[in-house]
Amino acid sequence: MTSKQRVRKAFKMESGTPDRVPLQFDLCRQLIDHFAARLKLDPGYTWSYYEDLTYRISANAIRTRLGSDAIVVGGQLDPTFVPQTVTDNVTTNEFGMHMKPTELYVEVVKPPLENVESTADVEAYAFPDPYARGRFENARRDIQQFGSDYFVIGDVELSIFELAWHLTGLEKYLIGLIGEEDWVEALNDRVEKWTTGLALQLVEHGVDALWFGEDLGTQVSMLISPDSWRERFRPRHERMIAAVRQKNPEVAIIMHSDGAVAPLIGDFVDMGVQVYNPVQPNVPGSDPAELKDAWGDQICFFGGLDQQALLPAGDKQAITAEMARRAAILGQGGGYLMAPAHILQADVAPQTVELMCTFALNGYQE
């Protein structure tokens, strides 16, 4: 069974069950560089329009060599874009955000629409062109190289809510949302158009699934109420899904949101989402047995491994026990792609990554 077949069966895109629970993972830059040197492989960086997305859509040769059953591709920087240096360690990205690297992430320190007050301000803002020539050059390359044997996920995060607030700042955006200011919907319209353009191009290039991603939850609750999300954002996701299905009804839809977003799983099912990611552990509503019992016949799961405490600790017995438990529960009868709940960061040792991969390849058996 190829990796592609394994994931397709796990996601119920083909009949039958996979021979084992498949595995997927993303690596931070430090881990990519480590394994590139050790395996003597090109790190394969695909520099993206949003910095953290770079590490999801890079290093496909490395992740497949280590044991991932899926690759991830997405939009890269417009080749004509030249970032501007603001200070020694702050540069502009394609959206005009001022970006500063930190120990784990690259953060927005100055959003381009922080002073937005009107629809006219939104209309005057120069959005990047999703159809820029060369934006999917590396995606095309990786699909051609790996797409026959590995499941191909097209990543279009940040989709709507998260990209919109990154353009204005979270406080500004939430106040505008609560106050029902006209510029919010104007901005959401432009973000939706951007994301739809990316998604449709990835479908044209031949991805097996599309990952729509934005973080709607915290460790304890949602950032906005479920009713607000249903009113303001669900229709936009439904339009994007409809556009994708019109172009290729066989593409699986993955909905990603970190945090405690279990109240929305029923909505995801109603919208036609086939896969829920990242099934973040240690938040309300994330118990794997309860999720499988409640939703396992209606939606598949992708994620579930704790990268906040479990994987950084590097305890072999605890890690393999948790992987075996999740495989047995969420993978019963198919319906599960195992993965860490986020990009593996530098606090996870390379040996732990190798342990995770070896244990998965052995079918979650010692």
Description:
The protein has 366 residues and is an alpha/beta fold. The chain has a domain at 41-294: TIM Barrel, CATH 3.20.20. The chain has 16 helices and eleven strands. Strands 1-6-7-8-9-10-11 form a seven-stranded parallel beta sheet. The mean pLDDT is 97.
Give helix % range: 40-55%
Count the E strands: 11
As a percent range, the share of strand residues is: 5-15%
Query: What would the average pLDDT be, to the nearest integer?
Result: 97
- Strand ordering within the main sheet: 1-6-7-8-9-10-11
Number of helices: 16
Any idea what the shape is? Answer: globular
Provide the structure class: alpha/beta
CATH fold descriptor of one domain? TIM Barrel
Low-confidence stretches: none
The CATH architecture name of one domain reads: Alpha-Beta Barrel
CATH hierarchy, class of one domain: Alpha Beta
What's the structural blueprint in terms of helices and strands?
Blueprint: H1 3-10, H2 29-39, H3 51-56, H4 60-66, E1 70-74, E2 85-87, E3 90-92, E4 98-101, E5 106-110, H5 119-124, H6 137-146, E6 151-155, H7 161-168, H8 170-178, H9 182-205, E7 209-213, H10 226-232, H11 234-247, E8 252-256, H12 265-271, E9 275-277, H13 288-295, E10 300-305, H14 310-313, H15 316-330, E11 336-340, H16 350-361
Parallel strand pairs: 1-6, 6-7, 7-8, 8-9, 9-10, 10-11
Antiparallel strand pairs: 2-3, 3-4, 4-5
